[in-house]
Automatic annotation (TrEMBL):
Source organism: Ceratitis capitata
Annotated Dynein heavy chain ATP-binding dynein motor region domain residues: 614-784
Domain Dynein heavy chain coiled coil stalk: 242-585
Any single GO BP term: microtubule-based movement
InterPro entries named in the record: AAA_9, DHC, Dynein_HC_stalk, Dynein_heavy_chain_D4_dom, P-loop_NTPase
Name of this protein: (Mediterranean fruit fly) hypothetical protein
Coiled-coil residue spans: 470-532
Keywords associated with the record: Coiled coil
Family label: Belongs to the dynein heavy chain family.
Length: 785
């Protein structure tokens, strides 16, 4: 109202959910009084402060100039022009419910609502409107196609097609073409709506209870019909398929029994033949094993003798090597001394004109050992004596003198030569390397060599018999090993044959074991199959009947879910007698119109879950049919329940049922009840608002109407100026202890009013259910199942 300078028109829309009277949502009456003032004068007393008026005057001056309006530039004239602009551009739309005295009282108290407004009455929907809406909803369900797919086992696709059909449905309702069944359904849903209106009037006349039939309930019925149809079609088809699969498995097990028995009949002879064959192989193995053991004993004895001969030969060889170990160091030392000699050392000896005695003695010993003959020369007395100097010079003058010493055949020294060495030279005290070294370094090495030859020859003479014995022992060992190897070869042939028998036996044993396992497995399977058939043989009949009944339920699903949708949308308000009478009337109508449905419709059978109903009963919900139907309506309605609960049965049930879900129990009189409610909407906690009266706080409207919007990937509800994040797990329950509350249509379109008040018949059913549960729990269990 501060911006009348703008050219666009301002519209203030006040819906009845915001403006209500005694029978409506609770609001501030001062709000309507302000609206009355605006309608009457266009102004409200004391609405603007001085600074606000100054700003308005300034704006209006510019507006008057722009519009070439000739106005006196005074505050009163400008303010009057301001009010005129408001009355021209501010439009107000008010919506009131004609139910009750609230509308009359407000017309009397606020005359401007008559003088300054045009009253437009919105009457109930005409028949053609109800018909066209029903045609649109029912045509979108594609009942024939979904039914055929379900009966052919494609329920899931049928559900998807039905659920998505709205998106593909044209908004042009002129193109709707309905089948005969769908045309009948359109007429039936219209009849449901009219019959509930008549029943409501009858209930008001007979019981004084006022119920309002609104288009919202009609839409609720159609939406429930569609959603229940999709859901139940999928549930029943899946359950039917489970029974069908079970029956197929039973039939398969029965067929497998015959096959397994035939298989066992074929396998038993094979196992017998294989067992006999393995026994024959085992006899051959035992015979060959015995022969191999005998051969092993012979070979073992020969091996023992050969080992003894080898040990004896080794002992002789070790003895020889021990003896030779005495001579070898001296021989190696002599050879090492020869290696140190140089041709120059030999040349020095050759150049001696008058050699020392030690030199001549050494060279003489070398000549004697090598068998060189001495020269015979006369001595000064004229007697002929042996002289080795000449042969010595010739010997050392040989270019290969040192090599001849190194390669000297030490193992075949003539006995005469070695005898002379030992008699003449070895005992000579001057024939030692230390003394010879003083005369000639070369002769020192030759002296060592001669002495080493003496030591080696003496040892060799001792070792030679032993070597002959070693040669004989090795020859004998070789002969024994030849015979032993021949016997080993014979044994290996036997062992190879035995190994082949063992391998063949192992293969046959594995084959036998595989056959035994196959027979054992076959027997176990046969036993399990026989137990399965024995244990479930009686179930086959029940499963067949259940599958047939479910198939029949699929055929009847259209009528059953239609009745269920009508019950959930319309019948929560009615007492048990009225509800039963209406359902019976609807059921008979469907049967007459040949709408596929159960002959005796039951809401608990169509929408109820036995496990869930049992849980409700444990939570305190009375076990009578009327209370169970109320529970089903609470669970399946798209609107939050408002339960008429003077006996507090519903209150107790809700508290027990939602106890583990952190239920919040509040009253409208609680100072912080809206804060608790808003937090519960955000965090998904269930909320029970108890002991409400005939009015509901207008702040509840956005929540009751479930005005959920998507914003930035999340779900939100706008409550006043606040955007509440919405959790889909949020649930709201409302109870009242009033026995006969009168709720306005504005409230009844937002909630599902449920009558939990006990009647005489309901009390009788509850007492009967409690008695049966205590006295005949078997019957109660059967009923629950």
């Amino acid at each position: 109202m501060k911006r009348p300078d703008e050219s666009q028109h301002q519209i203030f829309d006040s819906e009845e959910k915001s403006l209500t009277g005694k029978a409506d949502l609770a609001i501030d009456e001062g709000f309507i009084e302000d609206i009355n003032g605006i309608l009457n004068t266009g102004d409200l007393p004391n609405l603007y402060q001085l600074e606000d008026k100054a700003a308005i005057m300034e704006n209006m001056t510019s507006v008057a100039k722009q519009l070439a309006r000739q106005i006196e530039n005074s505050p009163s004239e400008m303010y009057a022009y301001f009010i005129e602009r408001i009355r021209e551009q501010l439009h107000i739309a008010l919506a009131f419910s004609p139910i009750g005295d609230s509308f009359k009282e407000r017309l009397r108290m606020y005359p401007s609502l008559i003088n300054c407004c045009t009253i437009d009455w919105f009457m109930p929907w005409p028949v053609d409107a109800l018909e066209r809406v029903a045609e649109y909803f029912i045509s979108s369900m594609k009942l024939g196609q979904a039914q055929e797919q379900a009966e052919s086992g494609a329920a899931e696709q049928a559900s998807v097609d039905t659920a998505e059909s709205d998106d593909k449905k044209s908004d042009n309702v002129e193109e709707i073409v309905l089948s005969e069944l769908e045309l009948e359904l359109v007429q039936i849903v219209m009849y449901f709506n009219n019959s509930v209106f008549e029943a409501s009037e009858r209930c008001y006349l007979e019981l004084g209870r006022r119920n309002y039939v609104t288009p919202s309930s009609y839409l609720e019925m159609l939406k429930s019909f569609k959603s229940f149809y999709v859901r139940k079609l999928e549930e029943i088809t899946k359950l039917r398929d489970r029974y069908t699969t079970g029956l197929e498995k039973l039939d398969f097990a029965a067929g497998q029994v015959g096959e397994m028995q035939a298989n066992l009949y074929d396998l038993q002879p094979k196992l017998k033949i294989l067992s006999e064959e393995t026994e024959r192989i085992m006899v051959n193995i035992e015979r060959e094993t015995a022969e191999a053991e005998k051969k092993k004993e012979v070979v073992g004895a020969d091996e023992a003798a050969a080992n003894e001969a080898a040990a004896a030969a080794q002992a002789i060889k070790d003895d020889c090597e021990s003896d030779l170990a005495e001579a070898i160091p001296a021989l190696e030392a002599a050879l090492e001394a020869l290696n140190t000699l140089k041709p120059a050392d030999i040349f020095i000896v050759k150049s001696m004109k008058n050699p020392p005695y030690a030199v001549k003695l050494t060279l003489e010993a070398v000549c004697v050992l090598r068998g060189f003959k001495p020269d015979r020369k006369p001595d000064p007395s004229g007697r002929m004596v042996e002289d080795f100097w000449g042969p010595s010079m010739r010997m050392i003058g040989d270019m290969k003198f040192l090599e001849s010493l190194k390669s000297f055949d030490k193992d075949n020294i003539p006995p005469a030569n070695i005898k002379k060495i030992r008699e003449k030279y070895i005992p000579d005290r001057d024939f030692v390397p230390e003394k010879i070294k003083s005369a000639s370094t070369a002769c020192e090495g030759l002296c060592k060599w001669v002495r080493a030859m003496d030591v080696y020859d003496r040892v060799a003479k001792i070792v030679q018999p032993k070597q002959q014995a070693l040669a004989e022992a090795e020859a004998d060992l070789a002969s024994q090993m030849e015979k032993l190897n021949a016997k080993r070869a014979e044994l290996q042939v036997i062992l190879d044959k035995l190994q082949k028998l063992n391998d063949f036996f192992a293969e046959k044993s594995r084959e036998k074991k595989r056959l035994e396992d196959e027979i054992d497995n076959c027997e176990k399977k046969l036993n399990r199959a026989e137990k399965l058939l024995g244990g479930l043989g009686g179930e086959k009949t029940r499963w067949s009947e259940a599958a047939q009944n479910l198939h029949k339920s699929i055929s009847n699903i259209v009528g059953d879910v239609l009745l269920a949708g009508g019950a959930v949308a319309y019948l929560g308000f009615f007492p048990t007698e009225y509800r039963a009478r209406i359902l019976e009337d609807w059921n008979e109508l469907c049967v007459r119109k040949k709408i596929p449905c159960s002959e005796r419709f039951s809401l608990a059978t169509t929408l109820g879950n036995p496990m869930q109903i049992r849980a409700w009963s444990l939570a305190g919900l009375p076990a009578d049919n009327f209370s169970v139907e109320n529970g089903i309506i609470v669970a399946n309605s798209n609107r939050y329940p408002l339960m008429i609960d003077p006996q507090v049965q519903a209150n107790k049930w809700i508290k027990n049922m939602e106890k583990d879900n952190d239920l919040k129990v509040i009253k409208q009189s609680d100072p912080n009840y809206m804060q608790i409610l808003e937090l519960s909407v955000t965090y998904g906690n269930p909320v029970l608002i108890e002991n409400v009266g005939e009015r509901l706080d207008s702040n509840l409207t956005p929540i009751l109407e479930r005005n959920v919007i998507k914003h930035k990937g999340g779900l939100f509800i706008k409550s006043g100026d606040t955007m509440l994040e919405y959790n889909p797990n949020f649930r709201l329950y409302i109870t009242t202890c009033l026995r006969n509350p009168h709720y306005s249509p504005e409230i009844m379109v937002m909630v599902a009013v449920l009558n939990f008040m006990i009647t005489e018949q309901g009390l009788r059913e509850q007492l009967l259910a409690n008695t049966v549960a205590r006295e005949r729990p078997d019957l109660q269990e059967k009923r629950n199942n």
